[in-house]
Amino acid sequence: MSTTHPAPVPMHGKTVLITGATDGLGRALAHELAAQGATLILHGRNRTKGEHLLHELREKTGNTQLTYENADFASLEEIRALADRVAARDRLDVLVNNAGLGVELARQSSHDGIELTFQVDYLATYVLSSALTALLTRTPGARVVNVSSAGQAALDFDDPLLERSWDGVQAYCQAKLAQIMLTFDHAELLRGHGVTVNALHPASYMPTKIVTGLFTVQSTLEEGVTHTLRLITDPTLADTTGTYFNRAAPDRAHTQAYDSAARAQLLELSERRTGIAWPQTS
Questions:
Q1: Is 172 marked active-site?
Q2: Cβ neighbours of residue 20 under 8 Å, at least 6 residues apart?
Q3: Does residue 2 form part of some domain?
Q4: In a designed cystine with 144, which of 166, 178, 183, 197 is the match (CB 3.0 to 4.6 A)?
Q5: pLDDT tens across 18-30, in order?
Q6: Which residues form the domain of 248?
Q7: In CATH, what number is assigned to the domain containing residue 260?
Q8: CA atoms within 13 A on the CB side of 257
Q9: What's the whole-model pTM score?
Q10: Which residue out of 68, 122, 126, 172 is catalytically annotated?
């Protein structure tokens, strides 16, 4: 007996913002969604690569509803400016927070004096999620997908930016846990407003620039795209929110993600470091 699966949500006419769209998973996801007719806002930090991606997608898919937005997430000012430009649009059906650094080999500071991995992998998600909440609530059935990782580590709020003791694995894993913690808070904030917010580990060690050369590739990009795309288009997930997925299955994140006091500390830290207040909804 064959099992019938519900048809995916049609993407034609839906607006999707993908951060980190010029490489790796983001780029592969952009190809898939462009082919499905989505209106894409593609973010990157290299304008030449962004323009090349636009040309490639138009040539391969015939989709002309594509724009590129340049912003270096090492600058809070550029993240905020990107958020403002997107917030001025009339709709946003899907926000995919995908941009991120991997395990860095040396500690770096952002233009704002913040540990770089924390800013790029987490604070950018915080700023965009905050600034675009109002637009998301005005778009029926909107979804937020935060591309996180199974690699998670607790934050030490006495040294959250690892100024006393920096380690590249800790920096990456705590930023990814912070993203999941924010996912839970954002989902709760938007509960009852018709917007879902979920996080996922798309696949392990895909052949991307943050993996190749440091780790052994274990998964294909196609696997990661399949799992990410499911959170965007699967109609059976229309009411699923505040969930962490490990590939296709709901999973339990690190214990700290379920600590409401730790999440409150993280929101306070995020507001203080970005100057952007966590939104309130009625």
A1: yes
A2: 26, 43, 44, 98, 99, 100
A3: no
A4: 197
A5: 999 999 999 999 9
A6: 15-274
A7: 3.40.50.720
A8: 25
A9: 0.94
A10: 172
